[in-house]
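$ ./design --mode recover --in tokens.txt
reading tokens...
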């Protein structure tokens, strides 16, 4: 019993991703090229193929994704593909009317192109002239649709020569919106899909794309190719793969090195090769220092056999995790062979690119990221190379990810090395241990470099915040406060690296509890009911380490209060005296009873030493308050200090200039060691 096939079912089950929206057009173009080949053979220059873009006659415009300066275009509603090939001969017509026909299987045809037409277009019609057995010119016309399949038209019209006009109309919106819009973008996609016809011996017929302008693909070929590299081949488990290698001119828009996976003289997949070979990034330079971009067109009988029916991929596993039969081939097997061949072909250009990339990394590390200097040599051993044109932000991310990988590898190696302790050590144990410790040393130096670099950046930001703007205004105190420590948080809410109080005093890093811009009532250390908010308040257990304290006795807790004022603020008075304000905070904390962060009382809290820091510019009113408090001026004239006996508190008034200068001086040796500017 004969089987019947449903055209509607076949179209429904045919896959066409929106990312391949032009594939039906490309299939029609390839069919036309094959018809021209069949007619002219070696005289291919007599062939002619024209693709006309049809746009909506309405006033609606396509405002889809576009580049700078791109004009809005009317939506594309269809295409007309005209050629002067052999036309729809009786054999070709029978093949067209037979689903899954193998009539042209010898040249890679799968008989699915016309199914893709119906997938993306509502209306398909064909008009063709062909020669009969006696050499007379015949004409046929038919419509093709899901509902009515093939409908022949009795009056096909006149044809003066053999050939065909395929009209694809009613471009479905889902595909139309995903397709390229401009004539140049469409021309490039057609060209790259059919490039084999241009590269083969004898070349391609005259091909043009017509819109409001005409784009000749033959001229595009001349603009496209910089030079040809030798055609090479690789062997993968007994299967031959041919590599057609090209250098594209630097004027082409796409600067990405690419591998085109081809089947049946068509491009099936495009793969970005960026970074898959060290030094292969965008443009390369030849021996004359001219820029070019590398592309490879890969073809093979194996790929022809394993291409999917819709020609959007291959029925080949990407890679095999488990052991497989020796003749099983994965895409990764093929890719590895291709990359090895490319590395040999481009060895000189890749060496130059790697040197330029290394110089780019060294320049960036010296200028902006000295933390990576201790591990640069190790990153290079991991195969880390960069595009010489990479942006600073992208380079920072790349180096950071590479450092993280180095740290992860070091942890894994350390676990492996120390797991051997107590067992019979391997012969290379000492060598592995030495290598691990050396790597660990470099990583630790990198961490220290990052810490110091961050301090340099913080001081630079502070220096900018204390300067006046072009309008003569100064930053608010909360901007400076937030730089020193986040506002409205305590030490239970921030990490150890979130505070920059080292700018004022390195000892502030060693606190038992610290609060920033929170009420005294909300602090577990005070027991106070006051709603006043000191800028910064902390306690620190001193004199005796807690772990060595005898019995249940706790050491005294020092109380630290920091007040920050706006740069050049000149309103200090008896009612707005930051010195008295700080001393009052100390008094309120003591009267509430100083507690540990866990809420336990600390003995003799009334005698707990206190330190008050006022960070403010020495305006006339503040100088007056310092003199009233009987404070002494520092030797550089940029601050005041003294001890208030009744309050048992040390007081230091620090101008912003002194704050930055002192912090810079304390860190100068570290900055110099890293090659950072100290001012």
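writing sequence...
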């Amino acid at each position: 019993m004969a089987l019947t096939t449903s055209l509607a079912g076949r179209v429904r089950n045919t896959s066409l991703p929106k990312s391949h929206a032009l594939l039906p057009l490309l299939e029609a173009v390839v069919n036309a090229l094959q018809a021209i080949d069949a007619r002219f053979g070696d005289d291919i220059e007599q062939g002619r193929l024209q693709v006309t873009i049809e746009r909506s006659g309405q006033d609606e415009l396509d405002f889809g994704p576009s580049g700078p300066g791109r004009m809005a275009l009317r939506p594309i509603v269809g295409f007309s593909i005209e050629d002067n090939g052999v036309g729809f001969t009786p054999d070709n017509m029978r093949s067209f009317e037979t689903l899954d026909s193998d009539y042209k299987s010898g040249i890679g045809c799968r008989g699915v192109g016309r199914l893709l037409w119906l997938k993306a277009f509502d209306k398909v019609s064909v008009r063709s002239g062909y020669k009969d057995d006696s050499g007379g010119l015949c004409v046929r016309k038919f419509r093709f649709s899901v509902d009515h399949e093939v409908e022949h038209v009795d009056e096909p019209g006149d044809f003066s020569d053999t050939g065909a006009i395929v009209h694809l109309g009613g471009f479905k919106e889902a595909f139309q919106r995903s397709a390229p819009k401009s004539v140049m973008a469409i021309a490039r996609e057609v060209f790259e899909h059919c490039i084999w016809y241009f590269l083969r011996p004898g070349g391609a017929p005259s091909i043009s794309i017509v819109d409001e302008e005409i784009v000749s693909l033959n001229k595009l070929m001349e603009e496209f190719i910089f030079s040809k590299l030798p055609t090479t081949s690789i062997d993968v488990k007994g299967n031959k793969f041919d590599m057609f290698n090209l250098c594209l001119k630097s004027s082409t828009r796409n600067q990405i090195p690419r591998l085109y996976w081809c089947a049946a003289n068509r491009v099936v997949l495009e793969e970005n090769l960026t970074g898959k070979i060290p030094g292969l990034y965008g443009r390369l330079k030849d021996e004359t220092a001219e820029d070019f971009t590398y592309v490879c067109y890969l073809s093979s009988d194996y790929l022809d056999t394993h291409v999917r029916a819709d020609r959007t991929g291959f029925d080949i596993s990407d890679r095999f995790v488990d052991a497989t039969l020796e003749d099983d081939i994965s895409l990764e097997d093929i890719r590895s062979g291709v990359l090895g061949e490319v590395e040999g072909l481009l060895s000189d250009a890749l060496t130059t690119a790697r040197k330029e990339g290394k110089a780019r990394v060294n320049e960036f590390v010296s200028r902006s990221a000295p933390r990576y200097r201790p591990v640069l040599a190790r990153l290079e051993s991991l195969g880390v190379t960069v595009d010489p044109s990479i942006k600073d932000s992208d380079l920072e991310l790349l180096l950071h990810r590479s450092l993280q990988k180095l740290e992860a590898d070091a942890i894994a190696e350390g676990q492996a090395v120390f797991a051997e302790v107590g067992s019979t050590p391997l012969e290379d144990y000492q060598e592995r241990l030495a290598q691990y410790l050396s790597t660990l040393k470099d990583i630790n130096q990198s961490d220290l470099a990052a810490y110091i670099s961050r301090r340099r950046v913080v001081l630079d930001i502070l220096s900018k915040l204390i300067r006046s703007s072009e309008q003569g205004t100064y930053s608010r105190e909360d901007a400076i406060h937030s730089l020193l420590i986040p506002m409205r948080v305590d030490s239970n809410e921030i990490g150890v690296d979130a505070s920059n109080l080292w700018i004022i005093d390195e000892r502030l890093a060693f606190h038992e509890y610290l609060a920033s811009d929170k009420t005294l009532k909300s602090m577990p250390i005070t027991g106070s009911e006051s709603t006043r908010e000191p800028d910064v308040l902390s306690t620190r257990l001193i004199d005796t380490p807690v772990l060595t304290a005898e019995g249940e006795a706790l050491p005294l807790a020092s109380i630290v209060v920091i007040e920050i004022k706006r740069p050049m603020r000149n309103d200090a008075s008896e009612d707005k005296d930051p010195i008295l304000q700080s001393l009052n905070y100390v008094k309120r904390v003591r009267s509430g009873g100083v507690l540990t962060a866990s809420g336990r009382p600390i003995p003799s809290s009334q005698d707990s030493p206190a330190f008050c820091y006022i960070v403010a510019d020495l305006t006339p009113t503040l100088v007056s308050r310092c003199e009233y408090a009987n404070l002494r001026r520092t030797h550089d004239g940029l601050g005041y200090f003294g001890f208030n006996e009744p309050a048992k508190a040390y007081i230091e008034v620090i101008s912003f200039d002194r704050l930055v200068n002192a912090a810079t001086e304390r860190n100068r040796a570290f900055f110099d060691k890293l090659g950072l500017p100290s001012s």
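exit 0
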